[in-house]
Structures are given as structure tokens and as C-alpha cells.
Amino acid sequence: MIGNDIVDLRLSRKESNWKRKGWIEKIFTTIEQHYIFEADRPEIQIWKFWSMKEAAYKAHQRRFEHPPKYNPIDFNCILGGKVAIDQYIYKVFTKIADNYIYSIAKESTTNYTSQIFNDIPKIQPFLLQKIAEKYDIDSSVLTIKKNDNQIPIVYINQRPSNILLSITHHGQYSAFVVSN
Amino acid sequence: MNKEELLSKLKTIIAPYVQNQEALKNLTENTDFIKDLEINSANLVDVILDVEDEFDIEIDNEAMEKMLTVKASIEVIENKLAIK
């Protein structure tokens, strides 16, 4: 299972006031808050943890076919790039760039390919092309539809495939991750 | 406070975070904050804090995790107001 999340830092500065009273406490555990306030740049630490939680949420929700839930505080960021929820642990890779933070969460056995895009109107054509290349199939037989839980599913000739996929978009940036 | 007043207050609270204005015009109980109104998930925290301020209630984690639709949010607010 796999999940990803991107934060456009220029947009998050406009959209979110993390200094607002109660904001941090609603999302982050006491341990996470400790790391946030100890960090050289608390803002970066906040969005790093946030993207880790969101990416792990997507992987977890997909794995157990959970309906959507808003419980970021239940996803515990652990040092060494891991997120724990209940008894499950996801490995998370995070890239911190000047203008964005990007996380990919996965179960230990899943391998993936990911691409980040800056300022494209639609990610879908790039994604279909990548899947077609990877699996050596014609992109015309591929479609992507979201299921009832808002999880994207890849269809090959109208049949649901077992290709795992996660898409994220925020502000100027979008990214996908596809299982190998 | 009746349901209509509550709905109207909730609509005012969520309006600044909504990215799909068309969906806001056609707001119903079944409207989903993320899917229909395209509210950024990080801004849901602001919606929850605004709800706490407006209704003078405290939304715990258990209530917060349900607040993804208009209907669920109204239920949470009603329940919290009832125990005030």
C-alpha cells in the first residue's frame, strides 16, 4: 500500500496560520509538538509532519478500505521516517525543497515510482503515460476512477487492476506515486 | 437554535476556506467538505477551531474525526450544545 502528499509552502503560508491558538494541539501529539518547537524552523517541521501523516493516512485508508476520517493526531510521526497508527507502521520518505515538502508512505514491501510536477494543468496524462511505460501496455486501455472512498483505482480495459496509485495536489505542485 | 440557524452559521464559518464556490451555493446536509467544497484538509482544523469559537463548545478528537460533511458537523455541534 502506498500514499503521498505534497505541501506548497508558498500557499500554506497564505492558507494556514499555524500560530493560531489551538491549531497545533488539534493535529500534533505532545511528542511531535516537542520536535516542532525545538526545530530551527518550526514551520518546516510542521509541514513535514503534516505531509507524513497525510501520506500515511492515504496508505492506511486504502489498505483497510476505511471510509474518510479526519484524525491526523492518531498518526504518530516517529524519528527515522516512520508513521505509526494503531499497531501498524508505515515507512515514509520525505523530500524538503525550497518551495515544497513531499512525502511518500508505504508498507515495507511496496516499491514505487514517483514524479513531482510544477505548474501543470492536469497530472492525469503524465500518469497514464508512466503506467503504460512501466507495465508495457497501451495508454488507451487505461482509465483512472475514484472509488466510493475517494481512492483512485487504475482500470485496464475497464477492469480494476492491482496497480497501487496515489495522487496529491497543492497550489503549484502535483505528484503521483505508482507501485512497481 | 434550530437546524436552519445552525446550518446558516456553519455556512458562514466554512465560506472562507471553500475553493468550489458553486458547491457552496448548493450546500445541503450531504455536502462533503473535501470532496465537494474542496476545502484543503489542513484548513479543516480552522473550520473546527472556528466552530469551537462560534458555538463556545469544545470539539474533542473523537468528534473531530467525523467532521467531514455538513451533516456530521451539525450532529457534532448539536450534541456538544446539548451537554453544555
Describe the structure.
The complex is a heterodimer of chains A (180) and B (84). By secondary structure, chain A is of the alpha+beta class. Chain A is built from 5 helices and 11 strands, in the order βααααβββββαβββββ. In chain A, β8 and β9 (159-160) form a beta hairpin. Chain B is mainly alpha-helical and 84 residues long. Chain B is built from 5 helices and no strands. Chain B starts with a helix and ends with a helix. The interface between A and B is medium-sized, with 21 and 18 residues.
Keywords, separated by commas or semicolons:
heterodimer, A: 180 residues, alpha+beta, five-stranded antiparallel sheet, three-stranded antiparallel sheet, 5 helices, globular, B: 84 residues, mainly alpha
Topology:
The complex is a heterodimer of chains A (180) and B (84).
Chain A lengths: L1 E7 H7 L7 H5 L2 H9 L3 H23 L11 E3 L3 E4 L2 E9 L3 E7 L5 E7 L5 H12 L6 E5 L5 E5 L2 E2 L4 E6 L2 E7 L1
Antiparallel strand pairs in A: 1-5, 2-3, 3-4, 4-5, 6-11, 7-8, 8-9, 10-11
Chain B lengths: L2 H12 L6 H5 L18 H12 L5 H4 L5 H13 L2
Helix pairs in contact in B: 1-3
